[in-house]
Design goal:
Layout (H helix, E strand, L loop, with lengths): L5 E5 L7 H8 L13 E6 L11 E3 L2 E11 L3 H19 L5 H15 L5 E11 L4 E4 L4 H15 L4 E7 L3 H10 L10 E10 L7 E5 L6 H8 L3 E9 L3 E6 L4 E6 L12 H26 L3 E9 L27
Antiparallel strand pairs: 1-6, 1-7, 2-4, 3-4, 4-5, 5-6, 7-13, 8-9, 8-10, 10-11, 11-12
Helix pairs in contact: 2-3
């Protein structure tokens, strides 16, 4: 259900209910890219059922899903078609196109080729814990998270406020202390260091050291920390139930539930399986998030990304594509 987590705190006003969130998301439903459109975003039913609800309530948790569809045309194809048009103009008129005309020719080439491009779609699962005012995005890249937050700003209107979850101790400082520790007793009780990390030095060309499937409780690792290299990510385990990679930006990646955690929902099918997966995964991850915050010294007040955003109409679809020829893709589809 969840592979990555980005954590935000919501303000006290919006959404007041799952129904209010549903009504807001319905103003930006997902529509597939048109023939000459490079990108389309919007909200889809999280159960995957056509015309289904855009917000599902399971065990007190609210779940939605945001879709991002892009179409990319190879740059070589655009250049080849543009060059052909340039040669035709030179042949028929005896002149070379100017800079503005050349840009227009590139745009025309892209528009002509877009209907042949295959769309790629990815989805971001969005989880709200209403009692904790916690907003969680299953996004592996900041660009996807920004797309979701931007949509929420548009649809929510006045009363919406959200900020990144921040802790008293930075993840990087905590990870460095855990790796430098000489004893397992210095680790937080609920967490333990696994066998993967990345250390990065300072300077214009910083040294980077990666450990994979390697014991990290060694003098070699501690020496790197003493020399000033700091962890940018560290594999951790939580209570023997969930493994994950913690980053310096307080993102949780490569989330993996250990064997046996989902046994209760393994026999369920269809809607029952969806409900079971949501209930079990959010239940486990809520405990992990709380213990991680405690291990980082507790939470500080969030820095607002947006506060009382004004009402806005649904996003306008681009009339003509940007001349870029490759879609931004930050990972495989969800």
């Amino acid at each position: 259900m969840f592979k990555n987590l980005m954590l935000y705190r919501l303000g006290p006003e919006w959404p007041a209910s799952a129904a209010q969130w549903e009504e807001a998301l319905a103003t930006e439903p997902f529509v597939e890219c048109s023939a000459t459109q490079q990108k389309s975003t919007g909200w889809v039913p999280p159960r995957g059922q056509e015309h289904g609800a855009l917000v599902e309530t399971v065990d007190g948790q609210w779940i939605a899903r945001f879709a991002i569809e892009t179409k990319a045309v190879p740059a070589d194809a655009v250049r080849a078609r543009t060059q052909k048009a340039v040669e035709e103009i030179e042949k028929t008129t005896g002149r070379k196109p100017g800079k503005k005309e050349l840009r227009d020719l590139k745009d025309d080439a892209l528009i002509a080729l877009l209907p042949q491009a295959f769309p790629r779609r990815s989805q971001v699962t969005v989880w709200i814990d209403p009692s904790a005012r916690l907003l969680v995005l299953d996004a592996g890249a900041q660009g996807k998270a920004d797309e979701v937050i931007t949509s929420l700003v548009r649809v929510a209107g006045k009363g919406f406020a959200v900020g990144l979850l921040q802790t008293q101790r930075s993840p990087q400082a905590a990870m460095a202390a855990w790796l430098a520790a000489e004893s397992a007793d210095e680790m937080p009780g609920a967490l333990h260091v696994e066998r993967e990390c990345e250390l990065k030095g300072s300077g214009d060309e910083p040294a980077v050291v990666k450990f994979t499937r390697h014991d990290l409780a060694t003098d070699e690792v501690r020496q790197h920390i003493k020399e000033g290299k700091l962890p940018t990510k560290l594999a951790l385990g939580w209570q023997g139930r969930v493994g994950f990679m913690l980053t310096q930006a307080l993102q949780l990646k490569k989330i993996a539930f250990q064997e046996g955690v989902f046994e209760e929902g393994a026999a369920a099918k269809g809607d029952d399986r969806f409900d079971a997966d949501v209930a079990l995964s959010t239940g486990e991850l809520s405990g992990l998030i709380n213990d991680l915050i405690d291990a980082l010294g507790g939470e500080v007040e969030a820095t607002a990304v947006t506060d009382q955003a004004p009402a806005a109409p649904p996003p306008a679809k681009p009339a003509a594509p940007h001349p870029a020829t490759a879609a931004d893709d930050d990972g495989p589809p969800f």
